[in-house]
Amino acid sequence: MSAVKATCTRTLWAVVMALASVHGAGAVQAAEPGDDAGEIEDEARVDPVLAERRDKAQALVRRGQELAGMGRREEALAAFGAALEVYPAYPLAHHELGVSFADLGDLEKAAASFERALALAPDFARARQALGEVRRRQKRFGEALDQFKAALAVAPEDVATWYGVAATLRAQKKNGEALHALRRLVRAADNPMAPPVIEANKEIAALEKAGVREVAWGVEGEPDAVGETPTPTVATAPGTLTRHDGDAEFTERRYLAALERYLGAWSDEGPDAVLAYKIGATFAVMNDDRQALAWWRKALAIDPGRELVARHLALLVAKLRQSGAEVSDGGGDGGDAVARAKEALRLGDPGSALFLVKGSDRPGAAAVEAEARLRLGDFARARAIFEELLGEDPEDRVAKGGLAETLLRMGQAGAAEKAIQAWVGSVGSEGGYKARPETFLVFRRGEVEARLLAPPEPED
């Protein structure tokens, strides 16, 4: 198993165990709202001894995650255990230890680890979902649903949790409520072509064919209304789900018919990032990688902020290059590799940018590599590079903002808030400006464009 695939498997191991074919690429991978998994209590920030232990524990956890990503589970287990010896009150270390035990089939130890993580961080949604999955596998269905419900109270759009709810309800023969959970999963997902969504749609079709009527199941604040759920797309905002002619054919795996409908819509409606992504996805499942590459690049040219498209594009570029195929990078031909990588990032192709600067010691390469890894979801490595850059220059604005965004996307809300304030420059000021994460991300992206990716000034 490749390191990338193993990492995806760890992150969403519950879904993988429920659906053997799921590889995680289309799953909801953004950090769960409310998760503060990596944060350690504030006394570690003022006590130098505790701060030293914290840093060592965090380094051990990162090492354990790398080992787990390489499939070296026993060594990962040892690394997480060592982190807890150094700093026992570390929720993320307990969680990662639990995932390792689950990977090795020791569900009792996994459950105990997740419970310790939750005792330290009750709003740690990832740990709640994982504990619920363990209880489901142990056939302790009531406890499983309790944990899933608590996880959804914190992260209501989490696909893995909704799948766990549906699987638990199916095991209890509560098919009407399972139908509700499956439709909720489909509504929550940001990619209609992802394996969990395709599998959920199959189960929905089977239940509907059997005449099952939907029965509401949910957490506090969930709507009670039932009925047809709109087909989700890669639209960024959950409330702006876009449908196109061809969606039904794609779901039914009638790919030529879907492609004909999508291309007709493109001709009629004009440029549309979501539609371009769907056309590329259709070519991809038909094994026409070159056409998929062209359409996904077109989608990013229309809307460079589509992270899902960028990640799929990067995976496709990597696949083509591993097969020995010639693939031009998004930054044109010739010239300095760092400049070409910056151009690739400007064009929304972080995969090509990473290919150009990975491991390079050229000036500016590390910052571009970190930004590319951040946009591709390789948060652990992006964080490490940004921290190295700040070690060299504590006032590096791009690295400050990059570290803050990485922590935010990793779900480490407390650490991210402090890093955002450091980027704003109001640390320690009473009544100083408090930047909201959404505002920070907008301004930070503009600063990256202006400081890191701006083309060189023309020479006189």
Order of helices and strands: HHHHHHHHHHHHHHHHHHHHHHHH
Helical run tally: 24
- Oligomer, anyone? single chain
**CATH 2nd-level architecture of the domain at 357-460:** Alpha Horseshoe
Helix residue percentage: 55-70%
Mind telling me the CATH class of the domain at 357-460? Answer: Mainly Alpha
- Mean pLDDT, all residues: 74
Give the class from helix and strand content and strand pairing. Answer: mainly alpha
Mind sketching the topology for me?
Layout: H1 3-11, H2 13-18, H3 43-46, H4 48-69, H5 73-86, H6 91-103, H7 107-120, H8 125-137, H9 141-154, H10 159-171, H11 175-188, H12 195-209, H13 247-251, H14 255-269, H15 273-285, H16 289-302, H17 307-322, H18 337-346, H19 350-357, H20 365-376, H21 379-392, H22 397-409, H23 413-424, H24 437-452
Helix pairs in contact: 1-4, 4-5, 4-6, 5-6, 6-7, 6-8, 7-8, 8-9, 8-10, 9-10, 10-11, 11-12, 14-15, 15-16, 16-17, 18-19, 18-20, 19-20, 20-21, 20-22, 21-22, 22-23, 22-24
